[in-house]
Amino acid sequence: MLARRHRLTAGEDFRAVLRGRGDGRRRQRAGTDLLVVHVCLPRPDATAVASLGACPRVGFVVSKAVGNSVVRHRTVRRLRHLVADRLGGLPPAADVVVRALPPAARATSAELGAALDQALARAVTRRS
């Protein structure tokens, strides 16, 4: 389970990561055949990075195309567990949205973990 401070919950926060809102933050997207990761990194001079309370926040998007309610919730639980293990590797004050694609429902946890690692690495290290 992700701690409350590590969760994106408001719709406006999701929209800010997915579409941007002109706040000068760097947004990157990277995908695999199982999922797409959207990362919103803070500006290098941002005060949030310097503050002690800055921590990454993560949200999940799993549409009906992935499957019925049981399948979608199972997919979110598996992704949440995988992301919780990787929180330490995310930049402070980064906002991340993980969007599951339909093949994610049939993937093993190892395949999801490898896809998540690959997408996160590409999104975080990509230059704007």
UniProtKB/TrEMBL annotation:
Signal peptide positions on this chain: none
Annotated EC: 3.1.26.5
A molecular-function term among this protein's GO annotations: 3'-tRNA processing endoribonuclease activity
Gene3D superfamilies: 3.30.230.10
Function: RNaseP catalyzes the removal of the 5'-leader sequence from pre-tRNA to produce the mature 5'-terminus. It can also cleave other RNA substrates such as 4.5S RNA. The protein component plays an auxiliary but essential role in vivo by binding to the 5'-leader sequence and broadening the substrate specificity of the ribozyme.
Oligomer status and interactors: Consists of a catalytic RNA component (M1 or rnpB) and a protein subunit.
Annotated family: Belongs to the RnpA family.
Protein's name according to its UniProt entry: Ribonuclease P protein component
Annotated source species: Serinicoccus chungangensis
